[in-house]
Write a structure and sequence with these properties.
mainly alpha, 6 helices, about 60% helix
Length: about 160
């Protein structure tokens, strides 16, 4: 039987993976991205979606029912953890934009200053698999993935400390 990895272990593994995925991006000499670089960006987007989804699934037990992200944000605000609530909510919105494209999450992100770059439109190619424009959130901004992971780890510690585990 296999040991189940803890949330912090999963986040650490995702960070290592994202750093490896970003390697082709360091070769970016010209303005145009190569196919390998576009694939790397898409892989980082998917890694961000995956780790956020795993975090939500693993931490859902801290709340009865309903939308995890809204409940966590409300709890953080109630406990005067405003900075963490703001960061968590912005990453929640960013992940929604990466998953679904333009919509209410994208409009909300555009209104508020963020630690990462949000694009108003995408003039680039449409993703073949999802048939939606990619890159409405720039995951290649230095520190994007690390800050996402730091936010998730901090939220994890908050929830675990609160529940006494």
């Amino acid at each position: 039987m296999e040991d189940v990895q803890s949330v912090p272990e999963l986040i650490a593994a995702a960070q290592i993976s994202a750093k490896a995925l970003a390697e082709p991006l360091s070769d970016s000499a010209d303005q145009e991205r190569s196919d390998a670089q576009r694939a790397a960006v898409r892989a980082i987007e998917l890694a961000a979606i995956d780790i956020f989804s795993v975090f939500e699934a693993r931490m859902q037990h801290h709340f009865r029912r309903g939308p995890f992200a809204r409940k966590l944000k409300a709890l953080l605000l109630e406990c005067k953890r405003d900075d963490l609530a703001k960061r968590f909510h912005r990453y929640y919105l960013a992940i929604n934009v990466l998953k679904h494209g333009k919509g209410s999450s994208h409009r909300e992100l555009l209104k508020a200053p963020a630690e990462f770059r949000v694009l108003t439109s995408n003039d680039g190619p449409v993703d073949d698999e999802t048939q939606r424009p990619a890159a409405l959130v720039d995951v290649t901004v230095p520190g994007f993935f690390d800050a996402l992971c730091d936010t998730l780890l901090e939220a994890h510690q908050f929830l675990e400390k609160r529940s006494g585990t």
